[in-house]
Design goal:
CATH topology: Methane Monooxygenase Hydroxylase, Chain G, domain 1
Number of strands: 0
Shape: globular
CATH superfamily: Phosphate transport system protein phou homolog 2, domain 2
Distance between the termini: 9 Å
Number of helices: 6
Helix content: over 70%
Strand content: under 5%
Largest sheet: none
Radius of gyration: 19 Å
């Protein structure tokens, strides 16, 4: 038996569509961050930011559709609330993708050469945590037996991201950059690290849902 009954196939289909849009947003975000860090032409970056925004908007629309259908289906209230809580927390991740892209663009933030590799690693590890929690989420709905292993791996990546975050901030504030630039870069680091924090928060909610149903 999966997390939802077979008669709720329409909800599962919408959730799957939502997760696929989140995946698309993550891919676009990665491309956008790589372009920003490597300083590609502004027009190319603007196009990528538009695509990230498009994915975030579509994900929002799909989430609202899922919420509407959940409230109109004869689901057990506790089950409905678990799903809504999980999706609400997950939805903060594509929002964060968009916020980071706009922040770097509007504030014209440039990553100095000595920190480029650290920022790229931070992006990579954060998105890996997101990818793992997505796998775990699908496992919850389709009864993948090693869901808890995926959640544990998210925790490991979140810890790795914490380490990179501390290292980068330490290096930034040890540099000769103006203080205003240091503060600006620190905020970008913290926002990037937030992605793995949110993935871990989704993992916590997934764990509760799994334990409650003894999946």
């Amino acid at each position: 038996m999966s997390f939802l009954w077979k008669k709720e196939k329409s909800i599962l289909a919408k959730i799957e569509g939502y997760l696929q849009e989140c995946d698309s947003g993550a891919e676009r975000f990665l491309a956008c961050m790589r372009s920003m860090i490597s300083k590609t032409p502004p027009t190319a970056v603007d196009n990528l930011i538009s695509l990230v925004h498009e994915s975030e908007s579509k994900a929002d629309d799909l989430r609202r559709e899922i919420e509407y259908e959940l409230y109109n289906k004869a689901l057990i209230p506790e089950l409905r609330e678990d799903i809504l809580n999980i999706l609400e927390t997950l939805d903060a991740i594509p929002n964060t993708f968009e916020e980071i892209c706009f922040e770097m663009c509007l504030e014209k933030i440039e990553i100095p050469q000595p920190f480029k590799q650290g920022f790229l690693e931070l992006v990579d590890k954060s998105l890996h945590a997101f990818s793992l929690i997505r796998v775990a989420l699908r496992g919850l709905f389709y009864k993948k037996i090693d869901v808890m292993e995926d959640i544990d791996r998210v925790d490991q990546y979140e810890s790795a991201v914490d380490g990179i975050e501390r290292e980068l901030i330490g290096a930034i504030f040890s540099s000769e950059l103006p203080k205003s630039d240091k503060i600006q870069l620190r905020q970008v680091v913290k926002n990037l690290a937030r992605i793995s924090d949110l993935a871990q928060a989704v993992g916590d909610k997934l764990t509760i849902a799994i334990v409650k149903r003894r999946i």
